[in-house]
Write a structure and sequence with these properties.
Blueprint lengths: L21 E2 L2 E2 L1 H8 L5 E6 L3 H9 L7 E6 L5 H7 L9 E4 L3 E4 L2 H11 L3 E7 L7 E6 L2 E7 L9 E9 L15 H11 L4 E5 L3 E4 L3 H10 L10 E7 L4 E2 L4 E7 L4 E2 L4 E3 L2 E2 L4 E2 L4 E3 L2 E2 L4 E2 L4 E3 L2 E2 L4 E2 L4 E3 L2 E2 L4 E2 L1
Parallel strand pairs: 3-4, 7-11, 13-15, 14-16, 15-17, 15-18, 16-19, 17-20, 18-21, 19-22, 20-23, 21-24, 22-25, 23-26, 24-27, 25-28
Antiparallel strand pairs: 1-2, 5-10, 6-12, 7-10, 8-9
Length: about 325
């Protein structure tokens, strides 16, 4: 499922679909495909927003990763509605996953669990610190007996729906063709109402939803390897190609992508700097994302912000807790 708009990550997603946002140096969708590759090489990508870029990526060198079919939704149909559109290609047990998550798991074990329990659907679950931000479930003997959507208080558990599923083709009988429909909100309740078996399997591997800026930063840090050079870098660092770094630069727990130019006396912490950006002398960046082609002048301070691509921040600028879109400038 790669059709999301990525509205919470704008302006980063103004020019690329959410599933192609780089994490640890590669499009986020590849983490899901790598996990699925242990059980299949046949993929259907349900796409909508800026789908041409996804088609282009997987029609090129990445086509070697498997056989790819694209289901284009000119008007988004939701997770279940988009799934219904692929019905004629799915005649046996199949996997479904959100392409905007960093995901690593042994899918063979998940499949064994699904088959052993003869489930109609098996949902991958992950423990979360804040259940109020997710749909959570209550398990009994591997079966889901209760759902609770983003509980504000008294959560039934801290086991959240990770957006990873194994399904049987019979689920299509419960989805109306051409209608906007959601797996969690519409399909699963319909199956519950018909007493179909819905299993829950707690995944043990990595799972990070990149839906918000702070989560995208965390995913980049988690998926980056520590830089072992002589420069004063700390924590998990990703360095892309042709990165230029000046003197007295400090980088901690951050990802720096291709063709980024960093001047002298710069400090970057817990941040992501995407391709072709320029950072002026003495600037400080914390807990922030600089989109592609961003330009920071000298002595700019950025904290807890998302800076749109092509944006110019002038000398001495100070940005805190902001989202700045392309075409804006601070004076």
């Amino acid at each position: 499922m790669a059709g999301g708009l990525g509205t919470r990550l704008r302006p980063l997603t103004d020019n690329i679909p959410k599933s192609l946002i780089p994490v640890g140096g590669r499009p986020v969708i590849l983490y899901l495909i790598d996990s699925f590759s242990t059980v299949s090489r046949d993929y259907i990508l349900t796409v909508s927003y800026k789908y041409e870029k996804i088609v282009e990526l997987f029609s090129g060198k990445l086509s070697k990763k498997g056989n790819f079919l694209f289901s284009v939704e000119k008007d988004p149909l939701g997770t279940a509605g988009g799934l219904k559109k692929t019905e004629k290609f799915l005649e046996e047990t199949f996997f479904v996953g959100n392409a905007d998550t960093v995901f690593r798991e042994d899918m063979k074990e998940l499949l064994k669990f699904h088959i052993k329990n003869k489930n109609m659907i098996t949902i991958g679950l992950t423990k979360v610190d804040n259940p109020s931000e997710f749909g959570v479930v209550k398990l009994r003997d591997g079966q889901i007996v209760q759902f609770q959507e983003k509980p504000k208080e008294n959560p039934i558990s801290n086991l959240a729906n990770a957006g990873i599923y194994i399904m049987e083709p019979e689920i299509f009988d419960y989805i109306e063709r051409g209608k906007v429909s959601d797996i969690a909100k519409n399909l699963i309740p319909a199956l519950q109402g018909d007493n179909k078996k819905i299993g829950g399997y707690e995944i043990k591997g990595i799972w990070i939803d990149i839906g918000r800026p702070r989560d995208l930063i965390r995913a980049n840090i988690e998926m980056s390897k520590k830089y072992t050079g002589k420069l004063p870098f700390n924590g998990n660092i990703y360095l892309g190609k042709k990165v230029k770094i000046g003197r007295n630069v400090i980088i901690k727990d951050s990802s720096i992508y291709d063709n980024v130019s960093i001047s002298d006396n710069v400090s970057i912490e817990n941040s992501v700097i995407y391709d072709n950006s320029q950072i002026g002398d003495g600037s400080k960046i914390k807990n922030s994302i600089l989109s592609f082609n961003s330009i920071l002048g000298e002595g700019v301070y950025v904290d807890d912000s998302v800076i749109g691509g092509g944006l110019l921040l002038r000398k001495g600028g100070k940005i805190e807790g902001s989202i700045l879109s392309s075409g804006e400038e601070n004076k």
